[in-house]
């Protein structure tokens, strides 16, 4: 990318726009702004991990591309582990690149509930189409492997709707390292697609640069204050002046940054996630999931409220999952070639919050499941178990510490009508949303219908924070669609503002 990821010791910078974060949201904003001819500076906290340097070992990949090495959790009972990318390209470098749109009925519900202008499925369609074209969302050709077949066979044997999944890809080689940064550049992440294009148009991208705060004066964002390091490791303080400021740091760090910048009203109060429970399924015949693509089908019969899918599987990742209850499950490592990893996720009714902590880089994150969420998790876990046995699993072990596992389909209804045990259930999520919901319902919305922070003329949010509630599907396409929409609206708003200023002068 023509050296665009080198750190710069310059203290004072100016541009038409500054973008904070380089993931699906920030990259999409950069595409719109640079195409319009604006000078753009992008600030990214993480480093650049090109495909040629993609780590082969899980521990190295987590250190290079995952926030806090993958060790992050929302406080609650139980705590819920969550994952975020922290590198150039953000979460698109470590996700599975699955491309799905939010359900049309949900979009309509959100439009009415939050009073979001121009938010119908038809009005959003062109933004979704742009997102899908950007990443070449497409079905994967050729044999998909036994992990995919297991989910397809299990779902269809039960009469459930099973859907093939499109992914952002070009010539996927099935390396099964989606979570480690794709070593082939086949996964169409932001560092492979949009960001090089924006850099070629003149965008300056500063990696390993953390934003401390945004200075607000007289209802305008005036300066973005950040710090970086020079090539010898010395701290460099940066001040960036720009006419437009876009915060695209994700559903955790966007509200934390806004709150550090003294913007607090309805910001970070409504965190939503996809609570997810996993199972390990043991089969009599080898699965060899490490040699296959991640499962590229999903049980969509119960969407958007519940979704059943499969996870990336490598020996190292499998070992980490067993570590939740190593005393009882460590022996499964000897049978790892015969195992597959699957999950059920729900759209929760519970809500969490995000708060920055003075002197600490990572904010406080809390999430409390509602009573009905526990019932839904029990139901989706039951359904995952049924699907595994329908695909001839020998044993199914839910992600519940101390649980002995099920050896027949007659046992899986254990939690159908009762909550899972809070003290021993291990939950996780890779999907985070809704900490800055948009709309004209001022009692519920942190930003207006087009992502502009209330009370600040030139400050916009454009990332997963904007998705009003959990969508029940992988969120990347929705994040990109909303970011394209915000960037277009910001350009229009800026042009109108300049015209009013010229008229006054």
TrEMBL record:
InterPro entries on file: FAD/NAD-bd_sf, GMC_OxRdtase, GMC_OxRdtase_N, GMC_OxRtase_C
The protein's name: GMC family oxidoreductase
Protein family membership: Belongs to the GMC oxidoreductase family.
Domain Glucose-methanol-choline oxidoreductase N-terminal: 85-108
Keywords linked to the UniProt accession: FAD, Flavoprotein, Hydrolase, Oxidoreductase, Plasmid
PROSITE patterns xref list: GMC_OXRED_1
One Pfam family matching this protein: GMC_oxred_N
Organismal lineage: Bacteria, Pseudomonadati, Pseudomonadota, Alphaproteobacteria, Hyphomicrobiales
GO function terms (MF aspect): hydrolase activity
């Amino acid at each position: 990318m023509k050296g665009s990821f080198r750190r710069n010791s310059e203290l004072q910078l100016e541009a038409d726009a500054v973008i904070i974060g380089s993931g699906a949201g920030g990259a999409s904003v950069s595409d719109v702004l640079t195409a319009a001819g604006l000078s753009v500076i992008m600030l990214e906290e993480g480093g650049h991990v090109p495909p040629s340097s993609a780590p082969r070992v899980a521990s190295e990949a987590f250190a290079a591309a995952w926030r806090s090495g993958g060790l992050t959790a929302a406080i609650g009972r139980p705590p819920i582990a969550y994952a975020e990318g922290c590198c150039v390209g953000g979460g698109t470098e470590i996700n599975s690149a699955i491309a799905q749109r939010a359900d049309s009925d949900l979009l309509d519900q959100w439009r009415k509930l939050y009073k979001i202008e121009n938010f119908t499925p038809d009005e959003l369609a062109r933004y979704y189409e742009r997102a899908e074209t950007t990443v070449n969302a497409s079905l994967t050709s050729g044999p998909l492997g036994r992990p995919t077949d297991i989910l397809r066979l299990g779902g269809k044997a039960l009469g459930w709707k099973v859907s093939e999944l499109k992914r952002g890809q070009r010539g996927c080689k099935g390396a099964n390292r989606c979570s480690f940064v794709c070593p082939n550049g086949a996964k169409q992440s932001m560092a492979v697609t949009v960001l090089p294009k924006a850099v070629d148009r003149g965008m300056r991208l500063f990696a390993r640069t953390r934003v401390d705060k945004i200075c607000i004066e007289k209802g305008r964002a005036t300066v973005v204050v950040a710090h970086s390091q020079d090539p010898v490791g010395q701290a460099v303080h940066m001040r960036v002046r720009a006419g437009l400021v876009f915060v695209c740091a994700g559903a955790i760090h966007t509200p934390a940054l806004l709150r550090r910048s003294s913007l607090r009203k309805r910001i970070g109060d409504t965190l939503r996630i996809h609570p997810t429970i996993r199972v390990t399924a043991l089969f009599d015949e080898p699965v060899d999931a490490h040699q296959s693509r991640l499962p590229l089908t999903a049980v969509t019969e119960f969407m958007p409220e519940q979704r059943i899918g499969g996870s990336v599987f490598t020996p190292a990742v499998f070992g980490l999952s067993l570590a939740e209850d190593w005393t009882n499950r460590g022996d499964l490592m000897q049978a790892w070639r015969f195992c597959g990893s699957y999950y059920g996720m729900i759209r929760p009714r519970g809500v969490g919050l995000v708060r920055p902590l003075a002197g600490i880089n990572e904010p406080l994150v809390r999430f409390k499941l509602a009573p009905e969420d526990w019932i839904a998790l029990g139901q989706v876990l039951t359904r995952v178990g049924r699907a595994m046995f329908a695909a001839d699993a020998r044993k199914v072990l839910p992600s519940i510490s101390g649980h002995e596992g099920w050896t027949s389909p007659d046992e899986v209804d254990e939690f159908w009508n009762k909550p899972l045990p809070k003290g021993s259930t291990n939950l996780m999520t890779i999907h985070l949303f809704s900490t800055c919901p948009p709309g004209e319902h001022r009692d519920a919305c942190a930003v207006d219908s087009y992502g502009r922070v209330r009370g600040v003329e030139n400050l916009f949010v454009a990332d997963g924070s904007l998705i009003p509630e959990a969508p029940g599907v992988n969120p990347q396409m929705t994040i990109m669609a909303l970011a394209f929409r915000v960037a277009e609206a910001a350009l229009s708003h800026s042009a109108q503002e300049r015209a009013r200023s010229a008229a006054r002068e």
